[in-house]
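Researcher: Next entry in the queue.
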Amino acid sequence: MFSADLAIPALIVGVLAYLAGSVSAAIVVCKAMGLNDPRTEGSGNPGATNVLRVGGKLPAALTLVGDALKGFLPVLITSMVVEHPPTIALAALAAFLGHLYPIFFDFRGGKGVATAFGALLGLDLTIGALALLTWLAFSLTFKRSSLAALLTFVLTPAYLLFDGQTTYAVVFVIIGALIFYTHRANIQRLLAGTEPLIGKR
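Model: Structure for this entry, 201 residues:
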């Protein structure tokens, strides 16, 4: 995995990717647009869905793009600098963890779906596009974004394994498990039949 000569560069990559992930797009966008802090409004989650409730479609779209980019760019830049899958995978995981537990915002982050998609697209555009299509298919079928995300990230490691990308598959098992953890309230509502449909509060 990591040899001695790669340990320090990998550590640097991990720290920088985590810091990039720690920049909360939701909080930055809301502050720039004069909106209330999303952590104090709606569900209290600093993510695109709650920003949609707080400020509408434009700030929500900007938040979604920002959250995806902070997963995508660290992975893309790392892959351009090093040809070492474990280091590239570390960049994906570190950026994702930064979103969940941002050092700049009291370690109170979002649920990680957009950042995970961004990181996956950075690792492999084809698999990332397949995952997005999977999410879309499940969303159209079940009309619940959270369920679509959960099912998508159950399948994502299988997509990567089928493509022979074992290292990335392992990382997305971890990311998928953390997405289930951040969606535990959604899972309870899904089981109770009270999870709102897409577009409904």
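Model: Residues 4-192 form one domain.
Researcher: Noted, moving on.
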